[in-house]
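Encode chain A's predicted structure.
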Amino acid sequence: MSESVVQKQAGLQGLSTAILLPSVSLFGELAGLYADEVGPLTSVVGIGLFQRTVLTLQRAGIRQLMVLAGPEEDQLKQALGKGPRVTIPVRWMPIREFPLDDPRTWESLAAEVRGFCLLSGVQGVFASPLIESLRQEVQEGQAIVVARADHEQDRQPRRPSVRVKVQAGRLLSMTSRQDNAALVATDLVVLPASFMSAASHTGVETGTVPIRRWLERAAVDGHVRVWSTETNRSHWYQDVRDAADVQAAEKKLFNSLKGEFEGFVDRFFNRKISRWFTRIFLAGGFSPNAITILAAVVGLVSAAGFGLGTYSAGIIAALLFQLAAIIDCCDGEVARLTFTESPFGAWLDIAMDNVVHMAIFAGIAVGSYLRADGSDGAWVPLALGSAAVLGNGLSFWLVTRAQKIKAASGWRTPVQAAWSDFMLKNVASRDFSVIVLTFAVLGKLDWFLWMAAIGSVVFSLLMLWVIRPSATTRA
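Encoded structure for chain A:
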């Protein structure tokens, strides 16, 4: 196969362009048609629907946006200029100059699309993994309709919905009639550019959006696949049409939060509580880095409490350390919800975690020494604490090296890469905060020092083995 053919096929398979319709749904209904409905500027977790759609697409790998905007164009531009930075190019195309029912509009759009484009309304909130999966699943000459189950059958219908009937993953028909057996089409559709360039061959009624007509014609030949959000929990989609939908969307956003590195306690305890703190931090306008520093301050106060050496101080310090672990979950949650992730923020988070851990080890060592002062073995807690602090510091330095190796060159084999990922995930684990609390309640914090010293030294030795020269490739 020639190189030009390969390049052509790669272009046909690409999905890097999105077309947004903030004024209407993909199937023609005006946004905000009903009095109780929300609009493209309605805030969901502090970010307007239009801006959240753009930032979600950007996070998912979309590299070009075209906006077919109505009279709210100036407001949308102002909204997009505030908050998190939009780094991908955005082309504004006023509907008054590019009518949605004019085939020439779609032909001009098709000329700027390589292979496929994603058409999206903005009155919905969806997960970026959904878009990432769509980008991987495009097939030449095939359209994709994203559909969801109807979870609102018991609610009073607020607007007509387009339902799709499916057979073996292919679209059979689209209808506006109530049918509990059918899926509901969302405002996400992937189209090959050829569908839009052939718009002039499809009859379009004046004042309507032709997308449904294109899909129905292509479905006759089996060229439309239906992607159900019900097959994967991370591929969720939530319509946002009224106040109840706003609450449902915010709930789904919070439920989707999950850190890249988290352990058992984080997943089943810390995250359950941290979401309440996250809401407070969002309302107060706290930045992720400010939350990281706050968690570190609470952790250092906890370390000082351990250093007092009394039983009651140990209990209070252990509870403060657990609180610091909970707050430490919030910086990542706020960053993901507000699209303010940054490499520096990720580094600051793990650096402060390790500073707090070393301070905790030192504080427990000092407190244990004070309790054993005058005895023959009083030096043992100090020795164990020193070993834990040095092991933790060495581990942090080695982890930093591992991250640089991963970014710059990589690992020789998949097994070595898996070991690296495993170690990186566990270095930031906060699970041992519960162990500290348990030993504090039992009055045996000196026992914890043995675990900390041995564990940190073993971890550092494993990291040395992971980043050994024979495991890495040359840049």
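The longest strand covers residues 183-192.
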